[in-house]
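Let's practice the habit of predicting before peeking. Look at the sequence and jot down your guess about where helices and strands might fall. Then scroll down.
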Amino acid sequence: MDDDKLLSDLLDPVVNSVNSSKRNMSSSTTSTPSQSSHYQVYTRRWYMLSVLVVLNLSNAIGWISFAPKADITAEYYKTSFANVNWLSLIYMVTTIPIGFLSTWVLDTFGLRTGMLLGAWLNLIGLATRYVSTIPQVDGYRFLIVMIGQGIAASAQPFLLFAPTKLAAVWFPDSQRAIANTLGSASNPLGILLAFALTNVIVQDVTDIPTMLWIYTIPGGVAAAMMTVGFCNSLPPTPPSASAAAVSESFVQGLKKIIRNPAFLLLLQVFGSGLGLFNTVSSLVEQVLCSRGYSDNFSSMVGALMIGGGMVGAIITGVYVDKTKKFEMTAKMSFTVAVLGVISFCTLSCYQGLDPYIAVAAGIFGTFGFGAYPVIMELGVETTYPVAEGTSTGFLVMAGQVQGIAGILLSQYLTTDLTPHQKNIQVCQGDVTPQDLTLPLLIFAGYAAFNACIFLLFFKTEYKRLKAEERQAASSILNFSSRSLGTPAPQGIYS
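Done guessing? Here is the structure:
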């Protein structure tokens, strides 16, 4: 009994110090004796993150560059709205087969190999798009621009799947969510720039070539930054206990996530949100011009969605870094975003509601992208020790699949405009505008359904945080035991 009391007296203060020690972990390598001997962070992690930011920004500009001027694009390439939609849709379609490859490459060969492939595929694709504007290929312009979009689209999975992995292997636990947020938010930043710049650059069909060569420049800058400066997939010393641990292999991870009910529910819910955003952002100009809203207003709506989303993502990223309340933050943000998209889909069926549509789009973007990085981190917590690239990859692929379904459904369910609608429509170019009321209402109902199942049925434990707490407890016990000259107790925190 005396021995038990002695052991209890020894362990009680240690156990009580574990959580406070965990909260106080920082980027300093001298915060505790155990940390200084095991974990370290490096200033160059911010350069690594900046490379990913520029890559995702460039790739997103390429993806959505035609959507704000879909009518003029259709006229320039002498094609239909449906074919112009494929310039965006191909990014989603390509993500599915390439997504499995990129997940395997990122988790097997590391960040540098995966991101290097993404950087050069992106640049080659953007350059190929510009080739479609030279006079010598006049009869094959749309085919060549589609090939260019396809090559750039092949780069997207390597870049979209990387933020959680980069945050996990280069950043301490107190900075993971904000690093993931900055890496992920660069994608909507690219969309925002595309909406804003395309509207300024493209005033008629002769401006399409100018737009394409301007959008090639950030791709070249990103490829140079990646090739020259991103030299290592991993830091010499890991920044945290989870970064030091060995992740599951791709096959083992795949087996685990398909047997994880919480993650499968997250796949459905996150996929619906990302799919709806991809669909709405691709169709926004077509939806609004048929109701009498100008291209300038459509671009402003797209900018509000993305600009608000970036603010929301940064706020939620900082918040969950400090509180670790992933589930509560994700549920709240997703629910408010759904209210925004329901309002947008309903209001955009009518004319003359400019301010209300703009507010609804802003709410959708702010809270939708506010949920994006949080759900990415939640996916890692739910599936740990599955590699971060695997969980993130499947979440993004779920969104792309549902985005494809949304765009194809919208094309199938469109109807001809009524005589009154034909009188108010302001779509430009030699294309026939369509009424998208029915698909918009279906999107609103689908969003509401997914918000309900997320709120009611999703529950998970934070496996990565728990593993790090156990490691922190073990490190403190080992340090205390060495200081006291006694062996550390075994099995207490298993």
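How did you do? The chain has 20 helices and two strands.
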